[in-house]
Amino acid sequence: MTDEKATPQEEVQNGPKSIDRKHFLHLAAAAATLPAIALTTAATAGATGATTEHTKPSSLEPTPECDDGDDPTPPQTEGPYFKPNSPARRSLLEPGIHGTVLTVTGRIFAARTCLPLERVLLDFWQCDASGVYDNRGYRLRGHQYTNPNGDFSLTTIWPGLYPGRTRHIHVKVQAPYQRILTTQLYFPGEPRNPRDPIFDSRLLMEISNNPDGTRNGAFDFVLNV
Ligand SMILES: [Fe+2]
């Protein structure tokens, strides 16, 4: 990406330069469903005798610019509390776990193609509401795989705080036969965010509150594959 200002004409042709990566990727994923619509339109045009041979389409989708390599999800330190062999589960809730329920959802995309990735392994771990990790067992630890749409969904609790860190969730993300991305997800508006040297604003989730007191977090990963 560059900071060059697009002329109005360029914006019409290429789309607004200000569109951010996540929103672009959502659009790209949605565009993957377009061929069926295009075929229908073409069939309709043929049926009505319309010709498109010399007609320049005026509403082509912009050519994806997904190979600039500037913004795969950044890696972060693993920290001292990762444990291999976590249980396969999308919900980390279990008896004895207390706190505000948080559901984190998102999708995983390939940077080079802008397409969602299925069968991507996500391994989450976090501290409890008191800021304590379970290093003996597997409380608040679990792994899952993305579905064919590249979706994941994690139900957990709002993590607590422990000395030296802002609020965060750890995760390892691995597409099949690819290198592991180890990173962390963060919460907007946390007073400790600016004081935590590990914090990275590119890893902030979008947080929303539900009427029942639970919360949602949203984050899309972009893997350098
Ligand atoms: Fe941590």
TrEMBL record:
Domain of life: Bacteria
The keyword Signal belongs to this UniProt entry's keyword annotation: no
Region annotation (Disordered) ranges: 47-92
Ranges where the Intradiol ring-cleavage dioxygenases domain occurs: 78-224
Matches recorded under CDD domains: intradiol_dioxygenase
A family per Pfam: Dioxygenase_C
Signal peptide feature range: none
Single annotated GO MF: oxidoreductase activity, acting on single donors with incorporation of molecular oxygen, incorporation of two atoms of oxygen
Record carries keyword Oxidoreductase: yes
InterPro entries on file: Intradiol_dOase_C, Intradiol_dOase_core, Intradiol_RC_Dioxygenase, TAT_signal
Keywords: Dioxygenase, Oxidoreductase
Gene3D superfamilies documented for this protein: Aromatic compound dioxygenase
PANTHER family, alphabetized: DIOXYGENASE (PTHR33711:SF11), DIOXYGENASE, PUTATIVE (AFU_ORTHOLOGUE AFUA_2G02910)-RELATED (PTHR33711)
Similarity comment: family membership: Belongs to the intradiol ring-cleavage dioxygenase family.
Protein name in UniProt: Protocatechuate 3,4-dioxygenase beta subunit
The species this protein was found in: Amycolatopsis marina
